[in-house]
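Entry: O-acyl-ADP-ribose deacylase 1
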Amino acid sequence: MSSEGQKPADTDKIKPAEDRWRLNYVTGNLFSCPKEEALAHCISEDCRMGAGIAVTFKQKFKGVSELKEQKKLTGQCAVLKRDRRFIYYLITKKKASQKPTYDSLRLSLKDMKLHCEKNGVTKISMPRIGCGLDRLEWARVSKILEQVFNHTNISITVYSLPMRAETTCLGACGEGGRARCPGESNLHKKGF
């Protein structure tokens, strides 16, 4: 077949791929992210938020009664709107004293994705969700994030504590950085 008579492709009109999914990593304070970026973290159905970074979310954004009024169940995502951003509360377990499952995390992330797509959210900042006090493994959680958000235009930035703070925690508690480390809770209360 000859290519004579065919016009060359007009590369100026080629649209960029719609997928802009990216997983970025930042060391630092989650709450220093740009004010227009959505935030996300994991909580329980009872909305207790009594430990870890959830305490800081509760102090900064209030709204516990607003969250409870939404009556979200495990595997869903509650949402607050604060100024120009959405704050996502991934409901990954029934009670604060329980541990989440990878399935409940996946379901709550899918629910968050639907809200993002309906509301034009393209950037979300979060801690290493489910991996602090909840003890999920980041390697598995990051794979779930990729599976859920791949083929979207949503980019996610994951914030981690500075190495110095993590080292302080490791040395102070002598538990090898396990979730029960008392230093970790204090670091989160300082806004990390």
